[in-house]
Amino acid sequence: xxxxxxxxxxxxxxxxxxxxxxxxxxxxxxxxxxxxxxxxxxxxxxxxxxxxxxxxxxxxxxxxxxxxxxxxxxxxxxxxxxxxxxxxxxxxxxxxxxxxxxxxxxxxxxxxxxxxxxxxxxxxxxxxxxxxxxxxxxxxxxxxxxxxxxxxxxxxxxxxxxxxxxxxxxxxxxxxxxxxxxxxxxxxxxxxxxxxxxxxxxxxxxxxxxxxxxxxxxxxxxxxxxxxxxxxxxxxxxxxxxxxxxxxxxxxxxxxxxxxxxxxxxxxxxxxxxxxxxxxxxxxxxxxxxxxxxxxxxxxxxxxxxxxxxxxxxxxxxxxxxxxxxxxxxxxxxxxxxxxxxxxxxxxxxxxxxxxxxxxxxxxxxxxxxxxxxxxxxxxxxxxxxxxxxxxxxxxxxxxxxxxxxxxxxxxxxxxxxxxxxxxxxxxxxxxxxxxxxxxxxxxxxxxxxxxxxxxxxxxxxxxxxxxxxxxxxxxxxxxxxxxxxxxxxxxxxxxxxxxxxxxxxxxxxxxxxxxxxxxxxxxxxxxxxxxxxxxxxxxxxxxxxxxxxxxxxxxxxxxxxxxxxxxxxxxxxxxxxxxxxxxxxxxxxxxxxxxxxxxxxxxxxxxxxxxxxxxxxxxxxxxxxxxxxxxxxxxxxxxxxxxxxxxxxxxxxxxxxxxxxxxxxxxxxxxxxxxxxxxxxxxxxx
Length: 687
What we know:
By secondary structure, the protein is of the alpha/beta class. The chain has 11 helices and 36 strands. The protein folds into 5 domains: 2-61 and 659-686, no CATH class; 66-172 and 604-651, Rossmann fold (3-Layer(aba) Sandwich), CATH 3.40.50; 175-275, Immunoglobulin-like (Sandwich); 278-316 and 330-510, 3-Layer(aba) Sandwich (Rossmann fold), CATH 3.40.50.880; 517-591, Immunoglobulin-like (Sandwich). An 8-stranded mixed sheet has the order 16-15-17-18-24-23-22-20. Helix 1 (13-33) packs antiparallel against helix 2 (38-53) and helix 2 runs antiparallel to helix 11.
């Protein structure tokens, strides 16, 4: 039972104040002028004001409430290092036992895991959430059971009670990590790009560890190479990308003796390899309708550098014009076909035939160019079926289809073959999903009959004869198009067709772009979900073996969603580098960073929380030195000392009932005030 004196005035407090002010004014004037009886009038006015204020006795029935202490247990990934899990379990048990022994005190235990989307340890956010669920007036303290490595130090909840950190870890802990300080998102193929790396040691580094470290570098999971780099200062690493598309470069530090973890010893960099410009050499025979179409298609692409070698005046044209009047500058044929041929990414022979302009050595050099990794497209016209065919040269060893000498002059629609429906160059071309679909594009009206010797026939023409043949020759690639009527699609004859898309795919396939490989295993990631795609020209069920960052493996079945394309989704439970294997195909994929944020800094520290804890008069204690006792301390006093931490009792209560009784009834006040008034009048009258 709590009793207190309060006021329950009969008139508003503002009116009471006005009355008091007027009374004080008149009494002051009376005292100043020395009027008789002013003292007794003052006593009477005071009594009237007191009666109007109506003092009352307030009685409250209160039930005391317990104090609340919040214990935040950090169970993030970094807490699994060394013996920290055992330290956490022991400290939690001791704190729970100590709080249980304190009178009128409750313990609220909340746990904390890794933040979603690699946001790290959100320790302050979890504490703020726990405080929001409890009455602020009952919060007596908060205890953090953590290594002190948090990633939301800027989230500072308003703490009405002491905050303490019980820190896991050992004084001898040390760790080594690898940092990628600078890495571009894309780079030009065959040009050097510089990455900046640094190896950093943290904690109590042993004196015999040394100031250098080996590092292993592997591109796309290929053959690793080992180097030695210094510790503690940035170094620049030059890298040259060998293929277009995404290149995954992995840097790995071997685990050093005694370091906390090797999870931060790896770094992955994904760089998209792009070509500066596509350098194309277009070699045309005699002028025809399709020549300008080829030229316009290639010139319309800003990323293409085109050199057009065309024969405007064949040697057999004898009209008596002096040679010195035919041209001001001689065309640098030898330089183009002998010295500079390797500078081109693609060579197109458009209806070219042997006329003695290009000597056999030039054509032999182009064959060598293909075998060394070059790309050549032959667009065959009627001359391809004659004795002057370019096939009758040194280039025959790289051309995958031989002419039979027959030229077919009739209308037909190009079709996809069974292989063409699966091949990335023609898959889905013009909306066709299978070889049985009827094309909606226009007809062509000429075809050179070909006899394939190697490679893959991906398109057929009149009566199912081979129309487009693709082949790999040595390190290079070759395509033969058995018609010179592809330009009809560009002109829109009978509705036209996808010539531009076909040419783009042919060029990119011959440039060995990864997305157009016939046999490929690729993966893309969104969050923790990996989409795996397997492309193949063969048939049959497919499954992929996935190796996780921790070395564990699992097998995922792939579903065929279209001819030659198999897809599956895989949910990765860990962040880091995954290795995918399907038959002879291998790929690597990174989910999140190679080293999660939780492992960027692993040495226990109280520095990040020290300012916040100091503001609440709390303390930081290393569990390796022992578990502190929990005591009660008065509010405003230091809440931490040698071997102990304090909580502040809040003395909160719940009011069950309240009663208000006047000190005197109104008739008693009337009697007292009347008596005072009469007494004052009598005293004044006698005087």
